[in-house]
Amino acid sequence: MREKKISLRLENICDMVPKTSKKILDVGTDHGYVPIHLVKNKRVISAIAADISGSSLQKAKDEIKKNNLSDVIFVREGNGLQVITDKDEVDTVVIAGMGGVLISDILEEASHLSRKEEMFFVLQPVQGVEELRNYLSAHHYEMKREKLFKWSGKFYQVFLCKISKNMQPSSDEYYYELSQELTKNPDRELLEYIEIQEAILQNIKHSLLQLQHKFELNLEQQNKLESVKEKILFYERVKSNASQGFGKQFG
User: Which GO molecular function, any one, fits this protein according to its record (predicted)?
Assistant: First the structure.
């Protein structure tokens, strides 16, 4: 059967899987499109498609069967990494399409597996990117690759990371906003993303300043205003540097 074309979001997730990977676990697999794509394109030898939802797993089973892959993609119902053991010999875990806090919780609940140095993780939060970056940094995950992309009118980030005992929490106070890695190769999407973030922050700043004209801000509001001002300056610097780099590429 011809493989169903996957979305740009799923393509970016699949592209993050290391070329050395042989067996993946796809957490929250839904229709099973990620493991099907990876196996059919010979990116991995086999996969485990897992989901906490029985109805989603049935969809995955149907898709896997349609593609004649039931002998190499195994379906398991359960929560997060708890569906596997060391005997499964999974080398890469994909967790995508969830909030950053939930992804952090999934990693924490199975720390005996998620903190194995040989395990790779492909993570794609739909929200809560700062919280996820914070968790990964605090627990010594090293970013191997990162990408910012736009799909269906929204911006997403996807990471490839793994535990490194020598990795220390980031000292860059704005790392959790937008890492230096993502700004190394500026393009139109990066500039658009920065402008959107700036606009959001400017609106927050405007609202707080309006409030300040009417009432005295409490300590929490004052700190929020100062933080927003600093973030605006950060994005202005990044945009200036990115614009210069973008101009050099196409000038």
Answer: tRNA (adenine(22)-N1)-methyltransferase activity
Tell me whether strands 46-51 and 73-77 are parallel, antiparallel or unpaired.
parallel
Closest to 31 measured CA to CA, from 71, 84, 69: 69
Q: H helices within 19-149, ranges in order? A: 33-40, 54-66, 100-109, 111-114, 129-138
Per-residue pLDDT tens over the stretch 61-105: 999 999 999 999 999 999 999 999 889 999 999 999 999 999 999
- Phi-psi label, residue 80: left if phi above 0, alpha if psi -120 to 50, beta otherwise: left
Q: Express as a percent the part of the chain with pLDDT over 70.
A: 94
Among 84, 69, 86, residue whose Cα is nearest residue 32 = 69
Which pair of tokens denotes residue 26? 């796809």
Provide the token pair at 16: 């993050």
3-state secondary structure of 122: strand
What confidence score (pLDDT) does residue 3 get? 61
Per-residue pLDDT band at 250 (split at 50, 70, 90): very low
CA distance 15 to 13: 5
What pTM was estimated for this model as a whole? 0.89
Q: Per-domain residue ranges for the chain? A: 8-167, 188-247
Starting at the earlier edge strand, list the strands of the sheet with 92-99. Answer: 73-77, 46-51, 23-27, 92-99, 120-127, 154-163, 141-151
Cα dihedral 73→74→79→80 (10° resolution): -40
